[in-house]
Amino acid sequence: MNKLAMAAKHSAQASIARIGQWFPHVLTEKLADNGKIKQAIDFDLLKQELSDVIVDGAMERYQFNWPGKKQALLQASLPTSSTLRPDKAGSVDWAKTRNLYIEGDNLEALKLLQHSYWNRIKLIYIDPPYNTGKQYVFNDQFFHSEWLSMMYARLKLARQLLREDGVMFISIDDHEQANLQKLLEELFGPSNFVAHIVWQKKYAPANDAKTVSATHEHILMFAKNIEAWQPGLLPRGEKQLAAFRNPDDDPRGPWRASDLSARTYSPRGDYPIIGPTGERFYPPPGRAWIVSEQRYKELLADGRITFGRNGTGRPMQKRFLSEVKAGITPDTWWSREKVGDNKSARYELKELMPENVFDTPKPSTLITYMMNIANVGPDDIVLDFFSGSATTAHAVMRLNAEDDGRRAYIMVQLPEQIKPQSHAWQAGFHTICDIGKERIRRAALKIKADTGADIDYGYRLLRVAAIEKKEAGSQDELPEELLIQMLLELGLELSLSIEESELHGKRLYYVAGGLFIACFAKHLPQKLIEHIIMKQPQLAVFREHAFIDADERAYVEAMFKSRAAVTRLIVL
């Protein structure tokens, strides 16, 4: 036993660990023979550490690399072998809602969304696993390489869904913040980096922290195309508005006084200003007036210069509220007072779900703040593909209620099983998706009760599922499955309205108010065909069994060609 213990202590991994204690920067990761990630030594760096001259090695270049990166790129590019199956019974307002809730692996979901939502999403927010060793939706613990590979494939696909003026926010903690920023700079380009935001997630430090208690998290913000994106301004609060007053009853309204001197010296701004009492004013030492003497005279004549209430103060320029920007430019420090914190998030969720079902929600006010900065319009789409307790959906509904908007959300969440001993399990929730969907339903009820707003409170429930062979021509598929499959293949939004009606004993489906009409029944009567032709839809969709034989199908195709040239006929 002693010999075995000695052998374990002198294993390669133990040696690597000891070298890492002396020279942490030479530690790296590589793929082992079994395909798994393990720690390794960068021998070029180690040689350099032990030498007093430059050691020859690989050509130096700036790069961000890790074991498995090429595989992650390939994974993002491979076609999906999945589809989306609708759950009409589990949906809320199935026919008319613009919102989607997708259960399943978000990598497959992102692939399935590509055709229908390419360049259509205004804002993406995600709160991914933080690689801290705590249990989460994916692996309990990642090596850096595994975590980066997991994120790389998904972020590459997600970026393609953003509009040119779209924005992405990602919450992250200290463990992977630096790596995540490098990854995003590679995918989006360094010029599209917008901000590294610090969010105050709690007020007081944790007394049980081993070293330093973290009271903040990071939020990285990138634009798809920073030249196309127009930032949103934040509304002024009472404190900002209080700075604007109108003591002289200026007809242009409230104003605030601003310094007339520039921080640097310029000869054009070096001149005396004579006040109402005859006193001469000069710029502070080393500085100059911010405007030329000619421009100063124009401002004075226009009543835009003030010398204080008694006319004896230094000259200041009047900035009118009606002429400044319509809001406040956001900054990178998001305090708990401004956007909420973990405590307010838990209170918000507990108010809806007293069962204590989720440990790490984000406050909906945080997401609303992001939507305002991203300039999300009243009809835009917001995506969250690590949706957890569905805070993002809650925030979208609440903002819609405030301004009567029609924003839509897409939530994607893996149906991770909840631990049987947890409060959530005991309350009847068996997966994270169960919590998210119930949170949406309860938030909708509360928002409607509080505001009375007539907005979209529903969602269309879809599940990522393997494509089965029967889909090639089976007659067993539900109409909803066929309709969603058609939307996927045609690249149309999966939330288009679906209305049903009965005509001549057959059920008709009108998609997007009649953009296309589908009937999956057998042996369609002539009057029903005539009705569809009269509607002149862009698409008419039937099953093969709609026709008695090939001759009848050819006859119907000829009818559409001669009498509904705008209609494309599709037979499944």
Automatic annotation (TrEMBL):
Q: Which UniProt keywords apply?
A: Methyltransferase, Restriction system, S-adenosyl-L-methionine, Transferase
Q: Which GO terms describe its molecular function?
A: DNA binding; N-methyltransferase activity
Q: Name one GO biological process term.
A: DNA restriction-modification system
* All copies of domain DNA methylase N-4/N-6, residue ranges: 121-419
Name the source's superkingdom.
Bacteria
Entry-linked SUPFAM superfamilies: S-adenosyl-L-methionine-dependent methyltransferases (SSF53335)
Family, per entry: Belongs to the N(4)/N(6)-methyltransferase family.
Q: What is this protein called?
A: DNA methylase N-4/N-6 domain-containing protein
Query: Which species does this protein come from?
Result: Paenibacillus montaniterrae
